[in-house]
Amino acid sequence: MKIALMDSGIGLLAAAAAVRRLRPDADLLLSNDPDGMPWGPRTPEDLTGRALAVARAAAAHRPDALIVACNTATVHALPALRAALEPALPVIGTVPAIKPAAADGGKVAIWATPATTGSPYQRDLIRDFAKGAQVTEVPCPGLADAVEHADPRAIDRAVAAAAALTPPDVRALVLGCTHYELVEERILEALAPRRRPGLPPVDFYGSAEAVAAQALRRVGAGPAPGAAPTGTLSVLLSGRPGPLPVAALDYPAGRLLAAAQTASR
């Protein structure tokens, strides 16, 4: 079984690591776009073109499923990707986990890129799935770029700025960008001093685990975390075979995947 994941950069690491934990025997193909990143500032048409190129590069290696491990690409390019590749190749998008986060009501915050915050796409998700919850949309300028470049000072600045906009009694936090899942611990550390006394830690809701499970369902496979760790890892950099980006090794998910790439050589 081979699962491909695509993104402009290393935001796909969390979902790839989730697939690896669920199926250590699955081969993984990571297809990103260093020549065209970041995708966020691009027009929807331009972004869709870049996403199609990255997806087709992955599809040429005949994976069993393709995960679009990028919220922005899912918003703008998912219909085009599915039109181009399905039904031969199942394409799984990434949607912020608003529905499960809001299930118990209370206060919920959604951290997302400035382009996504307040967008019709996110507002529609809130309208459809956050009934009974009080939702605060928190823009996080610069956080995805800081994570992409593994810049600790920039990460801390961006996280601190977003934490200052987050209600101190928020119950749940939705991570609306795949990059943010790589710095979940830093986000928790930034929120903790602002919590009201007696409140439990914030519950985090990312997309990686759900997307990984959905990819397995689409190919008719189930979780087998105890399987032999025989899965390989390969990487495409704007269509060219290459190594994991160096910045990936700054994160536990990247180091987990790098071990598989080394073992496969």
TrEMBL record:
Q: Which GO biological process categories is it annotated with?
A: peptidoglycan biosynthetic process
What domain of life is recorded for the organism?
Answer: Bacteria
What InterPro entries does UniProt report for this protein, alphabetically? Asp/Glu/hydantoin_racemase (IPR015942), Asp/Glu_race (IPR001920), Asp/Glu_racemase_AS_1 (IPR018187)
Q: Coiled-coil segments, which residues?
A: none
Position of the signal peptide: none
Keywords for the protein's UniProt record, in alphabetical order: Isomerase
SUPFAM superfamilies given in the database record: Aspartate/glutamate racemase
One GO term in the molecular function aspect is:
glutamate racemase activity
Name of the protein this chain belongs to? Glutamate racemase
The species this protein belongs to is Streptomyces termitum
